[in-house]
Amino acid sequence: MSTMVDVRHLFVRFGDFTAVRDVSFTVEKGEIFGFLGANGAGKTTTIRVLCGLLLASEGRVFIDNEELIAGHESLIKSKVGYMSQHFTLYDDLSIRENMDFAASLRHMNHAEYLKNRRDLLDFIGFNEDLTKVVRDLPTGIKQEIALCVSLLHQPKIVFLDEPTAGVAPVARHRFWELIKKLVAQGKTIFVTTHYMDEAENCGRIALMRSGELIALDSPANLKQNTFHKQLYHLSPITTPVILPDRNLFDIWEPYGQNYHAVFKNDTDISIVRKHFNIQKISPSLEDVFIQLVEGQTR
Amino acid sequence: MSKVEITVSNVHKNFKDVQALKGVSMHFETGRLYGIIGPAGAGKTTLFRLILNLLTITTGQITYREDGRPLPFDAFREKIAYMPQTQSLYADLSIDEHLAFFKDLYGINEQEYTRKKKELLQLTRLDKFLDRPAGKLSGGMYKKLGLMCALLRSPKVMLLDEPTNGVDPISRREFWDMLHEAVEQGILVIMTTAYMDEAERCGEVVLMEEGRVLAVGEPKTLLQKAQVNNFDELFLKRGGSHVDNG
Q1: Would the CB atoms of A174 and B243 count as touching at under 8 Å?
Q2: CA-based angle A19:A23:A29, to the nearest 5?
Q3: Chain B residues interacting with chain A (CB cutoff of 8 angstroms)
Q4: Which of B16, B37, B170, B198 to mutate to test the interface with A (most CBs of A within 10 A)?
Q5: A172, B232: Cβ pair inside 8 Å?
Q6: How many domains does chain A have?
Q7: What angle do helix axes A95-105 and A110-123 make, rounded to 10 degrees?
Q8: Do A236 and A202 belong together in one domain?
Q9: pLDDT tens, per residue, chain A with 298 residues
Q10: Is residue A293 part of a domain?
């Protein structure tokens, strides 16, 4: 596997403020790579650099072996596609008008555009009328058309920003199947999202905090290596619920009618067992995220 | 602490040819956090607008009760706080100015306002940002300010339409803690979300898709009954045989 994105000691500064500080990572060709972080962690700034929209203050960035330097942005842009859950298509335009517009922005050759459009619509299995206005399309179809638009100029890497957040489960499942087909065809996928169920689709995840990269691994390894204490699910067995002393816990969090908890000392479990059924549970990717970003047990 | 109840009985709502709600029934009462879970187009916002009397019901009925007594909506209205998907906060006003503005709007007396403001700022951890304009708050902080404004007049019912949309996991978890705190204080909290992974955080969920109710109940019980691991799987099993969701 060869490298699609190579970021070496990236710094981005805005005046006195350092938005990205000494970030280094690589993304391999054909990988689904997740890029996560709290609001203000430096994700968007990094992505703007990778898309050729912003220059690094320091460090080096390579996309498909081309170095991102001033004057080369248009070369990089031709290798990059972008799709967001929130805004990619114009609701008032038809499918064809949206695609025509995207092709014109990319200065695509008309014959090449028509061929790519046909191939992409075949790829998603869409054979309906292209004069349909986007507003009238079901959400799932809109997502797939937006994906086609981001792929029209045949980029090597596609950035997906919360691509299926809020989309119905069936449509979401279908969308990720399409993404996996793209990966099998050699495309590289770079996903940024606040939703951990989307992040679970990634081969590796990078986690940003305050402009720095604080973790990089597969979802399974992150879950396994981040937690050093057991997480428990507690279901009350008494009515009214008799809440235990919260000082017994590092974590005590309502979860529906139940609670998720980490004991300060596991020997205290017997105290709580009188009023709760207690089950060991595995941490979720969200637990991992919070543990790493907040630097606390959970 | 009084008990309030909202009962939705076989409600249909049509917009011209579109059936937004197709005979939905559900019951909400103080002491629980209810989540209305469903993808875009499920009818969640329409349901909220009907509960808030902002739209008229095509057929069916919504009843409101306090301590067992039926109340007309006009008498119930003042007990409800509503946080819409797109909040109407003022970008140029600070957190402090927002709270003062809503105090005047709701006619809250000075003593009650001082007490409530202190309590809410502690709960939201926004006390260090009092002077920051709403337009410069992060997504999570902005939502928390909206929640504070809604809680300022001590409502008995809170309706929150997709309050966690676009909020990062840490702010989202803090937001959920605030909602549970509100329930402990005796507020009936009903929220909508399009994110299946949030269903398990609710005391009771109403799963909706395409204007229909697929299931109602305690999250863990629903998953056990359906023999599935999560709500994505439950949706795939119960409804949504098509890609379309509108």
Answers
A1: yes
A2: 125
A3: 32-33, 39-41, 138-140, 165-173, 176-177, 180, 194-197, 200-203, 209, 218-220, 232-233, 235-236, 240-246
A4: B170
A5: yes
A6: 2
A7: 130
A8: no
A9: 699 999 999 999 999 999 999 999 999 999 999 999 887 788 889 998 998 889 999 999 999 999 998 887 788 888 999 987 666 799 999 999 999 999 999 999 999 999 999 999 999 999 999 999 998 888 888 889 999 999 999 999 999 988 887 777 888 888 999 999 999 999 999 999 888 888 889 999 999 999 999 999 999 999 888 888 888 999 888 877 888 988 999 888 887 778 888 899 988 899 899 899 999 988 888 888 888 887 643 4
A10: no
Shared domain check, A201 and A58: yes
Residues A117, A246: one domain? no
Q: How many Å lie between the alpha carbon of B169 and the closest alpha carbon of chain A? A: 6
Q: State the Cα angle at B31 between A290 and B55, rounded to 5°.
A: 95
Mark whether A209 and A64 lie in a shared domain: yes
Between CA A265 and CA A192 the distance in angstroms is 36
> In A60-214, which ranges are continuous DSSP H helix?
73-79, 95-105, 110-123, 139-151, 169-184, 196-199
- Between chains, do A138 and B196 touch, taking CB under 8 Å as contact? no
CATH of the domain at A20: 3.40.50.300
Q: How far is B151 from chain A (nearest CA, A)?
A: 20
Question: A173 and B244: CB-CB below 8 Å?
Answer: no
Could B219 and A256 be called an inter-chain contact, meaning their C-beta atoms sit closer than 8 Å?
yes
CA-based nearest residue to A273, from A227, A213, A232, A214? A232
What distance in Å separates the CA atoms of residue B218 and residue A275, rounded to the nearest whole number? 20
**A65 and A9 fall within a common domain:** yes
**Residue A87 resides in a domain:** yes
A47 and A184 together in one domain: yes
* Co-location of A158 and A268 in the same domain: no
Exposure string over A93-131, b if 16+ CB within 10 A, otherwise e: ebbebbbbebbeebebeeeebeebbeebbebbeeeeebe
- Return the half-sphere exposure (C-beta side, CA atoms, 13 A cut-off) of residue A190: 28
A70 within a domain of the structure (yes/no): yes
For B197, which of A140, A196, A258 is closest by C-beta distance?
A196
Q: Is there a contact between A41 and A210 (Cβ–Cβ < 8 Å)? A: yes
Which DSSP symbol is given to A124? T
Nearest to A40 among B138, B177, B241 (CB): B138
Q: Are residues A181 and A263 in the same domain?
A: no
Q: Which domain holds residue A249?
A: 228-282
- Rounding to the nearest 10 degrees, give the CA dihedral for residues A143, A149, A152, A157: -60
Q: How many CB atoms lie within 10 A of CB A140?
A: 27
Q: Which of A181, A201, A220 is the last residue of a domain?
A: A220
Whether residue A275 is contained in a domain is answered as yes
Of the candidates A167, A256, A258, the beta carbon closest to that of B40 is on A167
Tokens describing residue A207 = 């986690």
